[in-house]
Amino acid sequence: MLLAFYSSWPTALQIILFLVAVAAGVFFLVKFSDIFVGAASSIAKKLHVSPMIIGLTVVAMGTSLPELAVSASDSIDCLINGGNANVALGNVVGSNICNILIVLGCSALFTSVFVPRSTLKKEFPILIAVTAILVLFGVTFNLNGSKAILRWEGIILVILIVAYTIFLVLDAIRHPQQAEMVEDENGNMVEKDDGIKDMNIWLAILLVIVGAAGVVLGGEMVVFGAKHFALTCAEAAGVDNDLAESLVGLTVVAVGTSLPELVTSVVASKKGQNEMALGNVIGSNIFNILFVLGISATINPLTTGNQIVVDLIVMAASTLLLFAVSFRGKLDRKIGIGFILLYVCYVAYLIMRTMEVF
Questions:
Q1: What is the mean predicted confidence (pLDDT) over 40-69?
Q2: N or C: which end of the chain has fewer CB within 10 A?
Q3: What distances in angstroms separate CA 235 from CA 119, 157, 238, 268, one per listed residue?
């Protein structure tokens, strides 16, 4: 009924409607994922879960909720209506590229992002291995003539995210961090506030439900707006629908769902918490591949056009580039500017690819 209603509108008004839906959806994703994480963290704290474990589990998965909502919604839409999950795959691949080139690039503009040696030895190898698995899955397997992340591959990714989360928790238990002490107004040394709000348990449960519902609604709005915006523009410009959907997923949706990581990392950099910016991006990229794509592909195989191969290569190359420059011990302003320029070049390539220049 709604489709029939706006299909009679002029193309320009349809495009405005779809863009408003995307913008409103991104707002819902960012706002309600923050509500969900805050309430869930409060519940976990009341259950006497340590702040470190909360950060490694609830917060880490919570920052991937926008990507999960969009990708899972697109997966379900393809399950019901058919078609390719260009937005679902493009969202994750694009978000990972955006996290490295834009989020870290912008963070490095404010202050140098220092790279601990432990990160080079532990987190980076895991990220590179996970990225390699996704590239292998994306390049190797096909379904009905399209590149695909199949259901059994999604199940493997889900198993890996469970194993990775258990590894994080056990590692945190074996190597507990000392609580940071600060001086209060009376001159006494007290444990630094962990930033988790103390809520009434019933209010926290209600906010978890509201937050989850808002994230789901935001995901539906983003997929609705992004897909129909791409299809409307493709029809008007006479370009391939898959390429148009892929462009929107890799850029507009990817940047939108990366806003929590961007805000968190930039704020952390401005406060001098440099290591948090890098750890946030590495953790987010791992969760995006294993958690988001794993669940989405388990719901329904994710199919897309052959163009995803180039995007997967760009994602892998960005990851290896970050690993290589991290051996310098820090990401300075020059590297930040370089990352941002690389992203601009990538977006320019996507636009030309969509317009079939190549």
A1: 71
A2: N
A3: 47, 35, 5, 43
The Cα 159–Cα 26 span in angstroms is 29
Burial class (CB in 10 A: 0-12, 13-18, 19+), 326: buried
With residue 114 as reference, give the H or E element that holds it: strand 113-114
- For domain 11-176+196-354, the CATH architecture is Up-down Bundle (1.20)
CB-CB contact of 200 with 215 (8 Å): no
Q: Could you give phi then psi for residue 194, rounded to 5 degrees? A: -80, 0
| Contact present, 35 and 214 (Cβ < 8 Å) | yes
Cβ atoms of 108 and 331 within 8 Å: the answer is yes
159 or 91, which is more confident: 159
* DSSP assignment string, 145-198: TEEEE-HHHHHHHHHHHHHHHHHHHHHHHHSPPPPPEEE-TTS-EEEPP-----
The most confident of 81-85, 225-229, 261-265, 350-354, by mean pLDDT:
350-354
What are the counts of helices (DSSP H) followed by strands (DSSP E) for the chain?
18, 7
Domain range list for the chain: 11-176+196-354
Q: How far apart, in whole angstroms, are the C-alpha atoms of residue 328 and residue 326?
A: 5
In this structure, how many other beta carbons lie within 10 angstroms of the beta carbon of residue 241? Answer: 17
**CA 316 to CA 326: how far, in whole Å?**
15
The model's pTM: 0.81
15, containing H or E segment: helix 11-46
Residues in the chain: 358
